[in-house]
Amino acid sequence: MTTDKDTIQDAAIPEPVDWDAEAARFDDEPDHGLRDPAVRGAWAARLRDWLPERPSDILDLGCGTGSLSLVATDQGHRVTAVDLSPAMAGLARAKLAGRAAEVLVGDASAPPVGGRTFDAVLVRHVAWTLPDLDGALAHWLSLLRPGGRLVLVEGVWGTLSPVGTPAARLTGALAPLTAHVRHEPLSGDALLWGRRVEDDRYAVIATRR
User: Fold this and answer.
1) Mean pLDDT over all residues of the chain?
2) What pTM did the predictor assign?
3) 3-state secondary structure of 73
């Protein structure tokens, strides 16, 4: 299905969600909680491909309950996780207790990390919610060390009234700003989502100059 890019972008800014209220049941979604070993393994394989091979400093923005941060620490990375919701951040802290990780409460578009920089910035299902996407992309790139990676996991969800951000919107914005950018379709990997999906889900990986 072909959908007008600008229409989707306008529809991508959702009504406000009470993420504190959603936190208790957030992990019930297979790709959120990663409770199924097969789903967790599928995300772990993707992270091994997207993140640096060596142990690195990772910034996980919009971390939710910290499931991807947990997988990243399993792979030897040091993680700073940020979420706007205190309830989500609290669950992430419990999940990451004893790990090489810290969890901060803050806005993903302007995370409270001071002057620190990172080897990779990981952002899943956040970019489509932001009113100033271009500003956020530029800021995220500024948080990367030279050669660092920006990993965006996004989509256009639904078929009747789709919402989200088309991959071309992100690759187009990032191409002039980065050394390399690639689009990786994810819809066909049912293990990532715990079921087959029909909508458009993808990753965009950009490398800072």
Assistant:
1) 92
2) 0.91
3) helix
